[in-house]
Amino acid sequence: MSVRATARLRAEPDGRGGTALPVLESDGPLALRRTRSPLPGHARATVVGAMSAPLNGDRLTIEAEVADGAHLTVDAAAATVALPGARADGEPSTYAVHLRVGEGAALRWLPEQLVSAHGSDLRQSTRVELAPTARLLLREEQILGRHGEPTGALTTRLTVHRGGRPLLDQQLAYGPGAPGGWDGPAVLGGHRAVGQLLLADPSFEDAPLPARLFGPTAALTPLAGPAVLVTAVAADARLLRAVLNEAMRELLDGLKADHRQEVR
Amino acid sequence: MSRAALLVLADGRFPAGGHAHSGGAEPAVTQGRIRNADDLAAFCRGRLHTAGLTAAALAAAAAHGLDPLALDEAADARTPSPALRATARKLGRQMMRAARATWPSPELDALATARPRGAHQPVVLGLTARAAGLKSEDAAHWVAYETVSGPATAVVRLLSLDPFHATAVLARLAPELDDVAAQAAEAARRGIDALPAASAPLLDITAEAHAAWPVRLFAS
């Protein structure tokens, strides 16, 4: 049996300088827990996997809205592992994430890795609508296969609009059934871990960051709009996370050092 | 429509400046990721189905009559690397000059006025194809082919690869070029929200490294 589940959360200012979570709805394998945030004024929610998912054929959705002026962090207790499921001829699974961030609001969307297990077939999509003064820190990591196994089929799309205009649109396709060359020298070059770290902040409008490399297989690039994207490939999940953590620290410290308001 | 117009446009001697660009092949050769004709084929195939499909669909959409300024914005969102955005606009500017001399059109004039420093090359190419009376699939074919012919020509120079072998790589990719052009044209017919955004992480990463090299044979 395949699962259809939609989890929802909504963050609002609580009127006392903090952020409340008036909507926190778990569904099926997507269990949301309110957790303590180390950041002042931030609410935090953690996605806790309640069962193994997605299996092929499952349709999972998370919808998160951060109202004007609210501050939210969403993270996860563990990696998400896409699995083949019981039937070999099953449909692909889908995992859709819809995020809306309002004026003056901030969202840190920091899930754990997405692992594409051998035999799995997952279409993942993340769609973000940012208000012009919204801030976003978002990390996505795709790990192609568990340790020592070939990857499953995985496509991901990350689409971000700011004030209704396109800011970033990226589609990646790996594994069986993906168009040829995905593992070759133009795309992955044999690497098995791919990651993106996006920081959108209106302060980049006046002070864009220069492009910069983090070693031979990771680069921080200023987008055409007020945001930077770190793109990295690595041999495995641990090395990938190390590069993305280094970039994240540098970016957040840079925002502080420039006496800009901290991304909270 | 004129089939010969497509040959004029796709001719390597058409003065649009593409010969100065390796399409990411130069850093791939330097880093040892392209060492022979097989590697070149894998590189071209990967580029074709990612950056190539995305660019071909933008060109097809412009040829189909979608708003070129909205397409230029869509191209920016699909090009996170500032080095690659600069390259696309530079090539767009050069293509615009050649296009306005060969197939003058009010649409090309309007885009040149709105984007004096250059629009993304696939958008300019699409409008050029439109001015030349070509179809959106023709524009997609041109871009798909350019996506692989640039690196193949560059690798002949960078590796002293036998030009026969490089051309054989291109010939073997022909059915996939047709597929990509058809996909791109189909997406263009469905509108701007249906355009693909396929991307290649290593091309984006190495473009930035390459742009910072003090000495290089190719501009990109």
Explain this structure.
The complex is a heterodimer of chains A (264) and B (220). Chain A is mainly β and 264 residues long. The radius of gyration of chain A is 18 Å and the shape is globular. In chain A, strands 3, 4, 6, 7, 9, 10, 12, 15, 16, 17 and 18 form an eleven-stranded mixed beta sheet that branches. Chain A has a seven-stranded mixed beta sheet with strand order 2-1-5-8-11-13-14, with no helix packed on it. Mean pLDDT of chain A is 93; it is low at 259-264. Chain A contains one helix and 18 strands. Chain A has one domain (4-257). Chain B is mainly alpha-helical and 220 residues long. Chain B has a single domain, classed as Orthogonal Bundle (Urease accessory protein UreF). Helices cover 71% and strands 0% of the residues of chain B. Chain B has helices at 3-10, 25-30, 37-64, 68-77, 82-102, 106-114, 121-131, 136-159, 163-190, 201-211. In chain B, helix 3 runs parallel beside helix 9 (163-190). The radius of gyration of chain B is 16 Å and the shape is globular. The chains are: A mainly beta (264), B mainly alpha (220). The A-B interface holds A 157, 159-160, 165-173, 179-189, 194, 211, 213, 216-219, 221-225, 229, 231-233 and B 24, 28, 31, 33-34, 39, 42-50, 53, 73-74, 76-83, 85, 176, 196-205, 208-209, 211-212. Chain A: GO terms for molecular function: nickel cation binding. Chain A: This is Urease accessory protein UreD. Chain A: UreD, UreF and UreG form a complex that acts as a GTP-hydrolysis-dependent molecular chaperone, activating the urease apoprotein by helping to assemble the nickel containing metallocenter of UreC. The UreE protein probably delivers the nickel. Chain A: It is found in: Cytoplasm. Chain A: It comes from Streptomyces microflavus (Streptomyces lipmanii).
